[in-house]
Amino acid sequence: MSTTTAAEPQYKVLIGMEIHVQLATQSKMFTGAANGFGGDPNSQVDPVILGLPGVLPVINKRAVEMAMMVGLALNCQIAAQTKWDRKSYYYPDLPKNYQISQYDQPLCGAGSIELPLADGGSKTVRIRRAHLEEDAGKLLHEAGMTESLVDLNRAGTPLLEIVTEPDLTSPEEARLFGEELRRICRYLGVSHGIMQQGHMRFEPNINLHIYHHGKTIKTAITEIKNLNSFRAVERACSYEIQRQLAEYLAHPEVMPSQGKSTRGWDDDKGMTLLQREKEEAHDYRYFPDPDLVPLHIAPRWVEAIRSGVVELPIARRKRYQEVFGMSAKEAFSLTEERAVADLFDRAASLGAPVRRLTNLFLGPAAKMANEAATDQATTVLISDLPVTAEQYARLAQLVETGGISATSAVMVFEHLIKHPEADPAQAAEQLGLMQIRDQNQTEAWVMQALAANPQAISDYKNNPKKKQASLGFLRGAVMKASQGKADPKLVGEILEAKLKA
After folding, report:
1. In 3-state terms, what secondary structure has residue 62?
2. What are the beta bridge partners of residue 159?
3. What value, to the nearest 5°, has the Cα angle with vertex 31 and ends 27 and 35?
4. Number of domain units in the chain
5. Which CATH number do you get for residue 451?
6. Does 144 lie in the same domain as 26?
7. Please, what is the average pLDDT of the chain?
8. Is the pLDDT of residue 211 over 80?
């Protein structure tokens, strides 16, 4: 529950989300027309998309399976039978004047997800339903033109609409839910989740329960349409909460509690704007599509799809923390992208010491991926680098056994990027980075460092406040004398023995 000040009313925020996910099928929802972003305007259309007389829709089986996969990941009940309905409304980018959707028999019913929160806790977010439909086209409003242009390339794209219960209670939670859902969809491979290309669109439904003078006032629900970034979700929700509260404070006696409205988000002005009063279901005149038969979902089909649901990011983060002993931040970074986590798991399964492997992934690998992305002005993942799981495992083992230092491992990694076929041990040998574990040679380097630094020896023996700093300085002096080739562990053992003597 949030408050303004002690003198002002208390209020509770309720946010439910409607999320539209474009499914990454090769063809569209009810026709074989190509499905994909880009292309010349109105080039990815056919008679079915255009709604020409005599054409008939055909269900895209792969889209149904992708929707079922998301439903299972969200712990939804998969319907034994689902049907298709016509949602009638006129809009220039909807050639048929109706959208094929699902009304009273959605493919995926009630479910839930445990959403991790920023404070380390979690909360249950209930899923009301997830249903399949086709997307509409797009209206383009070019600057300086008095007309709007219609591009139907997006029309007919398989769209999974996921509807939650109003269980989110802050703008931050709304953003976190959107981010987690995107990870799930990308892990499952059902959507590319590229926000700039409109693969996911968010529509928060917001209202407040205001407690004032012994009464509970429920503000009217506002739906904010077509948000296409997580930043916009959080900012729009924050603005709308304060707008509804301010409206109540200005006119508490006339605050409406019924009816819904639709508002748009102006990102430049940072405010929501009224678009229209929200339609109810009867306004769309839903009725079963006569051209599409009901779809029967056999239990064996559901189980076949369930077997393809991979370990999801929430479960993977938990495993990395519990089994590998990672921090929450490390686990989050390594599981953000499925391809990166898969590569990490393969290297770990080959015997790579997990701590050394983690340092390689989050150190030189992350650095070089970021640099490559800057050079190419695109996203480059750690898994896109030309370093195999076997090379990661060998390099991590090389550091763990003292063959090379952690610093030298960075140089070997950079060598592997330039020479993808190289073996880490051979590369370290070629670069002169293999550590020397010879007792006599290491002792000679230690004596050389001690002879050159009598003050550090004095501080170590006579000044308790400087003891540890002096020891670190002397270790560095030994490593410098060896040109980084000495084994740090052996250096420490011999150095401390000499100092104590």
Report:
1. helix
2. 22, 133
3. 25
4. 3
5. 1.10.10.410
6. yes
7. 92
8. yes
Same domain, 284 and 388: no
Which of 400, 430, 460 corresponds to the end of one domain?
430
Phi-psi region of 432 (alpha: psi -120 to 50; beta: other; left: phi over 0): left
Query: 231: burial class by Cβ within 10 Å (0-12, 13-18, 19+)?
Result: exposed
Structural domain that includes position 347: 311-430
Taking only the tens place, the pLDDT of each residue in 362-394 is 999 999 999 988 766 578 999 999 999 999 999
Query: Which residue in 198, 201, 199, 186 sits closest to 70, CA to CA?
Result: 186
> Strand 221-224 relative to strand 260-266: parallel, antiparallel, unpaired?
parallel
| One domain, residues 413 and 447 | no
For residues 380 and 415, state if they share a domain: yes
Q: Which two structure tokens, joined as six digits, stand for 119?
A: 């404070």
Contacts of residue 468, Cβ cutoff 8 Å, sequence gap at least 6: none
Pairwise CA distance, residues 284 & 268, whole Å:
32
Q: Report whether 97 contacts 89 (CB < 8 A).
A: yes
Q: How far apart are the first and last CA of the chain?
A: 65
The Cα-based distances of 158 to 23, 99, 247, 459 in angstroms read 6, 12, 39, 72
Report the pLDDT value the prediction gives residue 24, as an integer from 0 to 100.
97
CA torsion, ordered 190, 194, 196, 199, to nearest 10 deg = 10
> What pTM was estimated for this model as a whole?
0.86
- Same domain for 78 and 167, yes or no, is yes
Regarding whether 144 and 39 lie in a shared domain, the answer is yes
44-53 long-range contacts, Cβ below 8 Å, gap at least 24?
44/152, 44/153, 45/152, 45/153, 45/155, 45/156, 48/156, 49/95, 49/152, 49/155, 49/156, 50/95, 50/152, 51/95, 51/96, 51/97
Which parts of 271-345 are beta strand (E)? 271-277, 287-288, 295-296
**pLDDT category of residue 449 using cuts at 50, 70 and 90:** confident
376, 397, 430: which is the final residue of a domain? 430
Instruction: Look up residue 278 and give its two tokens.
Output: 């929200």
Separation of alpha carbons 459 and 452, rounded Å: 14
Q: Are 235 and 365 in a shared domain?
A: no
DSSP secondary structure letter of residue 383: G
Q: Are residues 157 and 260 in the same domain?
A: yes
Beta-strand (E) ranges in 286-407? 287-288, 295-296
- What is the spatial distance between Cα 225 and Cα 208, in angstroms, rounded to a whole number? 18
| Distances from the Cα of 279 to the Cα of 15, 77, 88, 93, angstroms | 19, 28, 12, 19
Confidence at 6, pLDDT banded by 50, 70, 90: very low
Residue for token pair 């680098």: 385
